[in-house]
Write the structure tokens for this entry.
Amino acid sequence: MSDSANETLAVELRDIHKEFYGVKANEGVDFQLRRGEVHALLGENGAGKSTLCSILAGLYRPDSGEMLLEGEPAVFKSPKDALAARIGMVYQHFRLIPNLTVAENLVVGHPDLGLRIDQKELHSAATRLGEEYGLPVDPAARVWQLSVGEQQRVEILKLLYRDVKVLILDEPTAVLTPQEAAVLFRTMRQMAAEGRSVIFVSHKLHEVKEVSDRVSVMRQGRMVGGVDTADAEPRDLARMMVGRDLELPTRDQGAAEGETVLSVRDLVVESDRGLKAVKGVSFDIRAGEVLGVAGVSGNGQRELAYGLAGLRRPSSGTVILDGDDVSQATVVSHIRKGLAYVPQSRLGMGLAPGLTTEDNLGLKAFRKPPYSQGLRLVPSVFKDRGAELIEKYDIRGVQPGLPIRLLSGGNLQKALIAREVESKPKVLIARSPTRGLDVGATEAVRNLVLAERERGTGVLLISEDLDELLALSDRLIVLYEGEIVGELAAEDATSERLGLLMAGQREVEPA
Ligand SMILES: Nc1ncnc2c1ncn2[C@@H]1O[C@H](COP(=O)(O)OP(=O)(O)O)[C@@H](O)[C@H]1O
Ligand SMILES: [Mg+2]
């Protein structure tokens, strides 16, 4: 390597190996980080990204391999050593101390500061740093009072307070709204412009495209490639990530001709605080049609879903499900009439975290034979039928007898959708079904949704992911402050047009 190239390298990892009880988390990984770049580390769940980052941050020792800092060999025995070399990491699970204030957390573990900290100075330093980097915090707030996004800011500021030269962010956007992510991306660019290096771990291609200068891709413990982001086609990155050609499924063309399975008129639904969140919404869905609902989060999507699924009684308006008025009906009668609902939070509302996968798969059908005989449940049916569905829907990682919550996000979602579509619904309501999933799981879930469309189910797809909406929907409506501000056929929908409507600009009829 030439001297000039060496000069720009902040960190180099060579032939890193790390095994956990026989699992090869990193296998001969090479990685080079330049000064002043945002470097994305892309890979599916389990690819070895966190392990590699944790080695760089001194949390794990590699089994073998070398680390060079600005060309000099280095060995870290702990994160303290890494921090002394000005390398710091924000872990997926934060490590702040909840009972301390924001300002106090900034100096926890700081070697040069003893107990004699001037609180006032510390507070003004925290405020100044927050302002400088566009990450405002209240220095006096206790960490337990903060939102997850705010806690993340504190983690980042803590590292900036230590003046790190290398900042590692492990899937930081997983806990952020798109708006918060945009703010974080600006901060990342600013840090790079100052000559720091940022490692941005993600499995979201569009984020990687948006913020990084270079991208390195990992798969199954190995580094499979690295490119300048500007030269990287999303399709190629996806292929590198999953090791096969991956075409995110999109709907076939052609309008649905089926009969109307869901008809909504003048629907009004209130928010938790008793304000009108859905303000007189009307639409129809035909059998075999996907109606996409676009909108910035918080514009009534949640209440719309609740109102349609029977989870919240509409204040007024009618909902006709397959010919029956269900406007004021209970959740159970919605289900009996053919409604399936895939909520946004999989564990919580959708699945029972403590039950096994098999039991969860039977949760909707348990009142009927063969799951129950009279009042008695038949455990063997749950088990056998569960095993069948696990196979059919390719739900991976199931351990017999153990709770479903141990599954990965993608497999949880497959289980949830499997259960819902096995009831052969007339109407499927899905909210952000691929949120947080990696590309492989996203592909599987999209295929399940499209299979329902093929089968003749009417699908209401509520999502903040425009790519997903555009790929799957036959028609789109846009919600803004609880009202439909526009409707577009798939053929006419572009992200620009949708974006304008989502910002509240109504469509102007051409003269
Ligand atoms: N502390 C650990 N103990 C056991 N196995 C681990 C540990 N950390 C990671 N692994 C395993 O190593 C592999 C890579 O994991 P990880 O580095 O977390 O991947 P990623 O961050 O890309 O999702 C996975 O199979 C994971 O289960
Ligand atoms: Mg990880």
